[in-house]
Amino acid sequence: MAVIVVSGTGTEIGKTVVTAALAAAARAQGRTVAVLKPAQTGLAHGEPGDADEVVRLAGDAVTGVELARFPEPLAPATAARRAGLPPVRPHDVATAAAELAVEYDLVLVEGAGGLLVRFDDDGATLADAARLLEAPVLVVTPAGLGTLNSTALTAEALRARGIEMLGIVVGSWPGDPGLAERCNLTDLPEVAAGAPLLGVVPEGAGALEPAEFRSRATTWLAPRLGGTWCP
User: Rounded to two decimals, what is the model's pTM?
Assistant: First the structure.
C-alpha cells in the first residue's frame, strides 16, 4: 500500500504546497495519485479547499478527495462540535485511504495543522490514522527560529507511537535565508533523530502558474520522493 501521511509542526507552513509537489513529482514518473483531506476547516461548502489546491497545482490527473468540511477555522474536533456535525474518526481516514490505494499508485493524506490536532472529542489524531494505515509520516516544517523544537517534538511523538517518520521537508524556504535558516538545514535531521531532510520548497511556490509549478516540483524534492534535490 503506497500511502504517505503529510503532517506538519503547525498550521500555515506549506503542507498543501508540499503535498502538491509530491503529487506532481509522482505524476512526472507516470504514477497515478490521489490526495485525501480528512477534515477541511475554515471554508464554506463550494469554496475550493486544500485538496482542490493540490489538484490545481499538480494537474487534473490527480484525484482530490475530502471526507468532511467544517466552516469555522478551528481544530477539526472543535469545528465539528460547533457545527453540530459528526467528526472524522481515524478509522474513517484509514478506510478511505486504503480504498484509494487499491486504485491509485500513491495516496497522499494531508492532515490539518500539526500531528496531534484532535479529530474528535475522544482525542483521536492524524497519528492514530497513520498507525492504523501503517503508513509513514512526512513532516513539513518551517525554516526559521523555533522549527528545531517543534520538529523534535513531532519526531518524539511519532517514535512514541511506533510510527515511521519518512523525513522532513521545509515548506517555505526564503529567497534570502538568514543564519538561523541556513543552520537549521543542518540541524533538522539531528533533532529529528536522524530522519532525513527530503526537500526544500521555495517561498511563494504556491503562487506559480500550475505548469511552472509542475515543471519545477521535482527540483525541490529528494530522489526518495521522486525528485532531484540534494541537501
Answer: 0.96
